Amino acid sequence: MRALRRELQRAAEDRSVEGLPVPREGGDRPVVELRSGHDLVSLLERQMTGRERDLGPDHPDTLRSRSNLGGACQQAGHLDRAVSLFERTLADSERLLGPDHPDTLTVHNNLAGGYEAAGDPARAIPLYEHALAGRERAFGPDDPRTLLCRDNLARALEQTGNLARAIPLHERTLADRERVLGPGHPETLLSRGNLAHAHDRAGNEERSAESFRRTLADSERHIGPDHPATHHVRELLAHVRSG
To answer: pLDDT grade, residue 13 (50/70/90)?
Structure first.
């Protein structure tokens, strides 16, 4: 499931941490031409140092650079440093911009992702909830940033075993993405796959298989039968069918 999420995010030219360009491999055109997460850390360290020197530690661009550096550290596996950078940026963003500023909400989401990556999804949940509520107020319920945050919250709830909350959130996000983005958009496919996976974890094998079958059909039609994401969906469907 992690591999499927990665491939669909790549297909959507998404970002694993908001505001942070992710280098692409293979046929996709890179946003940043770097060979490794460690190269990206070095680049963003220099950027942050330059902005602190030129703009000061409290400038919004400096805060964004620090958050982006946290994202690069997370990608490179430096999880403790990533969390520390996100925590500092969140405290400064709340002090300087306010708790409901869009940049502050982004850091809430990024810190939640850092906690989740570090194996503590329960700590991530209230941060995702705060970011989701703020984005619904600021951007509306259909904005892609709102939908992304709801997807993140559902995944964290699923990881803590709270499937009774996670499944309805997955269902709502899927319905909204189908309506806003269309059934063949990679993020819509991701939502359907997430729902199928949650049903499988809840022991709803028939509903899981049906969701994966629909995901497979849409994936074959819209991103191609030979796309890596399509292969992952086939494997997941076969796993569910095998019991």
So the answer is: low
| C-alpha–C-alpha distance, residues 28 and 18, integer Å | 19
CA distance 10 to 28: 8
Q: Tell me the pLDDT of the chain averaged across its residues.
A: 89
- For 174, the token pair is 């899927």
pLDDT value at residue 25: 30
The two three-digit tokens of residue 140, written as one number: 């509306």
Contact at 8 Å (CB) between 110 and 18? yes
Report yes or no: 150 and 173 within 8 Å, Cβ to Cβ. yes
Q: Are 75 and 17 in contact (CB under 8 A)?
A: yes
Please answer whether residues 14 and 42 qualify as being in contact, where contact means their C-beta atoms are separated by less than 8 angstroms: no
Question: Three-state DSSP class for 23?
Answer: coil
List pLDDT tens digits, range 70-123.
Answer: 999 998 999 999 999 999 999 999 999 999 999 999 999 999 999 999 999 999
Residue 15 corresponds to which tokens in the numbers above?
Answer: 């970002």
- Helix or strand or coil: residue 181? helix
> What value does the CA radius of gyration of the chain take, rounded to a whole number of Å?
18
Q: List CB contacts of 221: < 8 A, sequence separation 6 or more.
A: 184
CA distance 85 to 68: 9
Contact 110, 136 (CB under 8 A): no
Which residues are within 8 A (CB) of 36 and not within 5 positions of it... i.e. 6 or more apart? 76
Interatomic CA distance for residues 141 and 195, integer angstroms: 19
Task: Inform me whether the pLDDT recorded for 20 exceeds 80.
Answer: no
The residue among 90, 154, 145, 88 whose CA lies nearest residue 116 is 154
pLDDT band at 36 (very low <50, low <70, confident <90, very high): low
